[in-house]
Every structure is written in C-alpha cells, then in structure tokens.
Specification:
Strand order of the largest sheet: 4-8-5-6-7
Number of helices: 4
CATH architecture of the largest domain: Alpha-Beta Complex
Largest sheet: 5 strands, antiparallel
Order of helices and strands: EEHHEHHEEEEE
Structural class: alpha+beta
Radius of gyration: 19 Å
CATH superfamily of the largest domain: endopeptidase domain like (from Nostoc punctiforme)
CATH topology of the largest domain: endopeptidase fold (from Nostoc punctiforme)
Shape: globular
Strand content: 15-25%
Helix content: 10-25%
Number of domains: 2
CATH class of the largest domain: Alpha Beta
Length: 211
C-alpha cells in the first residue's frame, strides 16, 4: 500500500505589533498560522527559536497537540545576514556524538529524538529495536495500544526505530515526533496522521508507557 504523507505548505505570517516578555527581556513578536505537518520544532527552526521556548511562549508544553489553523506567537524574523564579506569555508560536519544536556544518545538518531521529549526514557536502552525489551526489563509497561505520551517501537531484528506519540485518532492512526526519519536528523512531525502498522517502517509495533 502506497503511503501518502502530508506536505508542508508555505507558511504565512500575520504581521502584528505584539510585544512579548521573555524573562526580563522584552522582544517584538509576530504570529504564525500553523499548516499541515507543522510542529513546535519546525516552526522554531523557521524563526531561529528554541522549540521549548516557543511552546512556553504560547502557554503550552512541547508535547501539546497543535492543529492547522491555530496561531502561535513567534519572535520577529531575524534580519538577513550580511553576505558582502568573504566567508571562511564551512567546516566539515562532525560525527554525531552524545548530547551534553543529559541525553545519552547520538544526536540526530531516533533514540536521541525520543529522549529529547520523553526524559523518562532510559539512558542506555540501545538501538530503537532494543527499546521495548530494555524498557520491559526495567519495569515499564509495554503493550500494543497507542496512547498519547507513549513511545512507539518498531522492532525488526536490526536497528529498529522509535518515535514519541503526540496524538491518537479514533481510527487507530497516530501522529508522532521523531528524528532520523528518512535520514532527516532533527526532531519533527514528518508524517502527519498515519497507520503505524502499515507505515512503511519495518518491524513489529509495540508501545512503551511512562510509569
């Protein structure tokens, strides 16, 4: 069965003269109208913001469900960089290494992405395909029913894959935040609504639930 994924539409910004207080700093802000497939991470990337700060700025958690048509308050777009001067050649990308913020998984991998939003996940659960067994061994409940806030695992006998469930539909379809989906090594909602058992991601599906 061929899968159809939501394509992100071009975003629109309603230029409003809003003023936002962040801590003790006052900054001008605009509003952004959410499109299909948007997440806090994708919107934050467009505005050079931190996704967690963006969520807090709008009175939400990073795992809160946001829907197309809603508006988010965002920082005003940064001024274009001055490219009139000669720039030094870009350095070669460094090999992925564990993050220094308490996340023990290699940056950009699916395991790293889930740990970013589910801090309760274990630090040394192995590859995505190992997570269900590792979690069960540590006393976490593992089952076959999707739930918001659970971790979905695809166990295929190899590296496998994991993602964080952000929404569950009555028809069994889900939405997730994930990293390293089709080699895209940042955390985002890439698929919109999809059937986890017929998604093109190989492996047996199970879910880890927070204790």
């Amino acid at each position: 069965m061929k899968n159809h994924f939501f394509k992100k539409a071009a975003f629109t910004v309603a230029a409003t003269a809003a003023t936002v207080v962040l801590g003790n700093e006052i900054t001008s802000a605009d509003t952004y109208t959410l499109q299909e497939g948007d997440s806090f991470f994708s919107v934050a990337q467009k505005y050079n913001m931190d996704a967690y700060e963006l969520a807090a700025l709008n009175g939400k958690e990073i795992t809160s469900l946001i829907l197309p048509g809603q508006t988010l308050t965002v920082n005003s777009p940064a001024a274009p960089a001055d490219t009139s001067q000669t720039q030094a050649p870009a350095a070669a990308p460094a090999e992925a290494a564990p993050a220094e913020d308490g996340n023990t998984y290699p940056v950009g991998q699916c395991t790293w992405g889930v740990k970013e939003v589910a801090s309760w996940a274990g630090d040394w659960w192995g590859n995505g395909g190992d997570w269900a067994a590792s979690a069960a061994a540590q006393g976490y409940s593992v089952g076959n029913t999707p739930a918001v806030g659970s971790i979905i695992c695809w166990t295929d006998g190899g590296y496998g894959h994991v993602a964080y469930v952000t929404a569950v539909g009555e028809d069994g379809r889900i939405q997730v935040l994930e990293s390293n989906y089709k080699d895209q090594q940042w955390l985002d909602n890439y698929r919109g609504w999809f059937d986890p058992n017929n998604s093109g991601t190989p492996g047996t599906v199970s879910y880890i639930y927070a204790n």
